[in-house]
Each structure stands twice: as C-alpha cells, then as structure tokens.
Amino acid sequence: MKILITSGGTTEKIDSVRGITNHSTGHLGKKIAELFLAKGHQVTLVTTKAAVKPEPKENLKITEITNVESLLETMEPLVKEHDVLIHSMAVSDYTPVYMTSFNELENSEDFTEFLNKSNSESKISSASDYQVLFLKKTPKIISLIKQWNPNILLVGFKLLVNVSKEELFEVARTSLKRNQADLIVANDLSDISANQHIAYLVDEQSQEKVSTKSEIAQALFERICHD
Amino acid sequence: MKILITSGGTTEKIDSVRGITNHSTGHLGKKIAELFLAKGHQVTLVTTKAAVKPEPKENLKITEITNVESLLETMEPLVKEHDVLIHSMAVSDYTPVYMTSFNELENSEDFTEFLNKSNSESKISSASDYQVLFLKKTPKIISLIKQWNPNILLVGFKLLVNVSKEELFEVARTSLKRNQADLIVANDLSDISANQHIAYLVDEQSQEKVSTKSEIAQALFERICHD
After folding, report:
1. Up-side HSE of residue B25: CA atoms within 13 Å toward CB?
2. How many other C-beta atoms lie within 10 A of the C-beta of residue A78?
3. Among partner residues B11, B123, B132, which is closest to A132 by beta-carbon distance?
4. In this model, does residue A125 exceed pLDDT 80?
5. Which of A11, A93, B17, B220 could cross-link with B126 by S-S, CB 3.0 to 4.6 Å?
6. From its phi and psi, is residue A213 left (phi > 0), alpha (psi between -120 and 50) or beta?
7. CA–CA dist A63, A150 (Å, integer)
8. Does B109 reach chain A within 8 Å, measured CB to CB?
9. ipTM of the predicted structure?
10. B216 vs B187: CA distance, rounded Å
C-alpha cells in the first residue's frame, strides 16, 4: 500500500527572524514510518527540517514543508495518490497577520483594521514595552482530505493537555465525524514522557489504549493492514 | 582565556504546545567556539537544543537554555567567571503574556487588563477566527553584562534586515554605547546565505568588513587575543 505520513510541527512566520512553532519532535511519525517501511509498504513522509527522520530507504520519500500554506500545497496532490494518510503533524491553528505596539491599539477606533494590515518592515521594531500580535485561523487541512480523495483511509491525531478521558474521547469523536476520519489517535500531553506515550485509538464504537510510541505504530499497522 | 559564547535562538512559550522562536541555527557560534578551542582556550557555550554544536572536547562545556528567563539565570554566574563574552544568540525581544479571542478584545473597555492576565488553559482553544496575543518586552541581557562583570570583554551582535550600511553602523554604535560593549558584530539578514555571511566588526572608530562565518571567527579571535 501507499502510506502518506505527516510528522513534526509547522512554523508560521511573524517576520523574517521570528516565528510561531508548534513543537513536535517527529519521533512518533518516524516510528510509524519505520514500521510500514519494514513491512514493505511505500511510504511518503511529509515533515519539517527540525523533525527527526528515518534513515534513507528505497521505498521512502521525504518531503519537507515549513508552514500551513506549504503543507496545503504539498498535501493535495499526495493525498490523491495514496491509500492511507496518518496525519501526526502538529499543524499551526493560527498564523500571524499583523504585529503592532500597544499604543497603536489604544489609539485605534476600530480594531478590525488590524486584521487587514500587514507589517511592511522585514524585522518588526522592538521599541515599545508591549506589543500586540493579531492572528487568523489557518485552513484545517484534515477537513479537506476526504474532499481530495474520498477513498483514502484517514487517521487523525488529537493532542489535548490535562483533560479527563471523557473529554479526550468526546473531542476525538467530534473530530472523527467532522473530518470523516476513520480513526483518531487521541492523546494528552501530560501522559507523554521519554519512555511513555499513552494514546487511545478512537473510532465510533471503541477506544483502544496503547502506552508507547512503538505500540501506537504497531496498533496502527494492525488496524490498517489487517482490518 | 575563559571564553563564554552564546548561540542558537530562544523560544518563548505561548502555551504547552506553541512557542515563539527566534530562528538561529547556531552555525556561527559553533565556528567561533571551534576556533577558540583549537587555539587552546577554555570555552563555555550557552546554546539551545535545536542549535548545531561543536564535537565534545576537553576544554569545552555546553549548557542548554530555552527561554530568556533561563538564559538570564544561566548567564549571571557564568559572566562573572569568564574573561570574554561573545553573545551571538538570537534572544527573544518579547514574551507572551496573554492570548485571547478577537471578541474579548472588542468587548473590553480597558486593554491594560490584558497585560495583567494570563491563560489558565494549558492549550489555548482554537475556536475563534481571530486571536490576539499580548506580549511584553523581555529583559535585555546584554545591558546587564558589564554590571555583572565590569572587566569582561563584551562582543555583542546586531542583526537587521534590509537596511543601509549607515543605518546598520548607527544602530551598532548605539548598542555599543548603551551596553558598554567593546565590539558589535553588525550584519544584515539579506547578506547571509549558505556560503556567505557579510558582517562588520564595529567599534567607536572603525568598521572591519568580513565575508564568511570563518572570517568572522578569525577576526574576532585576532581582536580578542592580539589586541
């Protein structure tokens, strides 16, 4: 099968020297890729410069992206030619629009003006004591996958922080329905450490608990290749 | 001599999954460290996890920091026990205070309230179309160096983007005076590429032009060890 995997975290530029990054090392995506590669599948890994990556292999293609815009452009053709997407990348929810001083905010009569502005400076000045950064929502790539390819098997990821299991499952099932995903890997940052990565493979009826990155990879392989 | 070098870029957390990063690979700091190590000096490198680093050596100590707060804590004792500081790290100018929806901003009667708020959520919700992030200035570490150790030789760095040489030199000399620095390495992002790194070693009277990272390291070594 042709497996498309995303890993790492996107960075949205504030200016030419600063950006907002979603932290993700890429270790989980690497583990998943390595398992499918070892089983003889063709893997395309869409990842970032900073993320860890598998060793080069004949059946592995790696493509690097930076921000949501470049991810979107890269994904559309790839989604159309793969059988499975395992979308473990941490994608930025918001991207910077305009950064200004607190004074400019106080002197404004209509803040919506800031949503249509953009910074002309290459490096935003650091003169004022406080600054205000306006951000807008990025396109939700996961919601476009089944439009691009209704036959692809879609595995999404949901990372929350310090929530109850009930809330985690509920949010995962909302994402499952909204994005027509086949499976959501739901996890809580507080359950992830060097040697542990508790996660739940959530579908409409069930939630399967696994406890390490290797177990997540193994469980995904079994669901995808043996179901 | 005991040489303290900083490299890489700091990251200021927005929440537990997102942060604002000053991009810096650490290549220049690595080059400078390697030259001083090769000449038999004792080097302490304060850097970040993501930055490239020299190979381990007997006369090299490496300390990793994350944000401006941890840099500040780490630097004070180190500055007191070194002869030279080469401060090439890209340090965040601002750190997040509070992130909220555009609606909350529109409904506010006094925006200064946002400067005293903080997010209670571990991961800020991504429900609204626009968000607003309030940031405050970080302490300027370079301005504290000579207070901590009046005898240290201080080399600062100034990176601007797309400015004239006159502006670059003026900003460098302002930093020289304000921070009681002995030398400022002034450079423009538009003059930096894979094989080129144009920079000017600026003091009160002169500006010495160099064109690569190796030349920057060599010129710094000559100024520091032969003057």
Report:
1. 10
2. 18
3. B132
4. no
5. A93
6. alpha
7. 23
8. no
9. 0.88
10. 11
Predicted pLDDT of residue A104: 84
Q: How far is B6 from chain A (nearest CA, A)?
A: 17
Q: Is A194 an 8 Å CB contact of chain B?
A: no
| 3-state SS class at A203 | coil
Query: What do you get for the CA distance between the two ends of chain A, in Å?
Result: 14
What is the rounded CA–CA span in Å between residue B88 and residue B8? 8
> Strand B42-47 to strand B2-6: parallel, antiparallel, or no bridges (unpaired)?
parallel
Measured over the CA atoms of residue A178, residue A184, residue A188 and residue A192, the dihedral's sign is negative
Amino acid type, A28: L
Q: Say whether pLDDT at A227 is over 70.
A: no
Percent of chain A with pLDDT over 70: 99
Question: In Å, how far are A115, A123, A167, A200, B144 from A170, measured between CA atoms?
Answer: 33, 42, 5, 12, 50
Asked if B73 and B47 count as a contact pair (C-beta separation under 8 A), the reply is: no
Segment holding A137, helix H or strand E: strand A130-137
User: How far apart, in whole angstroms, are the C-alpha atoms of residue B89 and residue B24?
Assistant: 8
**Beta-carbon separation of A94 and B134 below 8 A:** no
Single-letter residue type at B147: Q
Dihedral (CA of A120, A124, A128, A129) sign: positive
pLDDT band at A110 (very low <50, low <70, confident <90, very high): confident
DSSP secondary-structure letter at B54?
Answer: P
Eight-state DSSP code of residue A111? G
Going by C-beta distance under 8 Å and a sequence separation of 6 or more, which residues neighbour residue B19? A20, A21, A23, B11, B12, B13
CA distance A102 to B150: 35
- Strand, coil or helix: A95: strand
Contact between A184 and A172 (Cβ < 8 Å)? yes
- At B117 the pLDDT is 83
Across chain B, what does the average pLDDT equal? 94
- The CA dihedral of A167, A171, A176, A178, to the nearest 10 degrees, is 140
Cross-strand pairs, A154: A85
Residue B208 has which token pair? 């010495």
Domains in chain A, CATH or no CATH each: 2-93+138-226 (3.40.50.10300), 94-137 (no CATH)
Task: Supply A98's token pair.
Answer: 């305009």
Q: What single letter denotes the amino acid at residue B116?
A: N
Rounded Cα–Cα distance for residues A205 and A182 (Å): 11
Query: Is there a contact between A161 and B136 if contact means CB atoms under 8 Å apart?
Result: no
